[in-house]
Amino acid sequence: MSEFDALGKLFNSNIIDLKEVPVDTFAYIGDAVLNLYFINYIIDTGRKKAGKLHNESKNYISATAQSKIVDIIIDNFTEEEKALYKRGLNSKGAKKRGNDIDYRKSTAFETVIGYLFLKKDYNRLNEILDLAKNALKERE
């Protein structure tokens, strides 16, 4: 059993049809998943106080960081993920900051992550999160 299979049991959801879930809800869930994933990654690198953890997390979970991640990994998305990304990019939630392209791309990325999480495709979610982590490592 993978770590995401076990996580899936912890966050068991009874959503029957993901087509009924609004795109902005996927983004909201995706934001939470990304926050938890990268905070866990940061604390794995050593003991950190909450303030330092918060400041360091901005390097991973800000709109700018997520926009850069997408620039690097989008070619690895499936056609379904690219279509969902496009929906997220053009969603009402993505446009709430006007035409801030980093924010829109970040929201679209979160949409894909939230969708994979709610779909319970934890293997694919793990692949995308690993790509994201590696993209940031390359950038450092």
Question: Overview of this structure, please?
Answer:
The protein is built from seven helices and no strands. It is an all-alpha fold and about 140 residues long. α4 (about 65-75) crosses α6, α4 (about 65-75) packs across α7 (about 120-140) and α5 packs across α6. The longest helix is centred in the N-terminal third of the chain and has 22 residues, at about 25-45. The protein is globular and about 40 Å long. The chain starts with a helix and ends with a helix. The model has no long low-confidence stretch (mean pLDDT about 85).
Descriptive labels:
mainly alpha, 72% helix, 7 helices, 140 residues
Q: How many extended strands?
A: 0
Mean pLDDT, nearest integer?
A: 86
List SSEs in N-to-C order: HHHHHHH
Strand content: under 5%
Distance between the termini: 32 Å
What are the low-pLDDT stretches, counting only 5+ consecutive residues below 50? Answer: none
| Number of DSSP helical runs | 7
Oligomer: single chain
What is the 3D shape? globular
| Rg on CA atoms, Å | 15 Å
Helix/strand-derived category reads: mainly alpha
In percent, how helical is the residue content?
Answer: over 70%
Major β-sheet profile? none
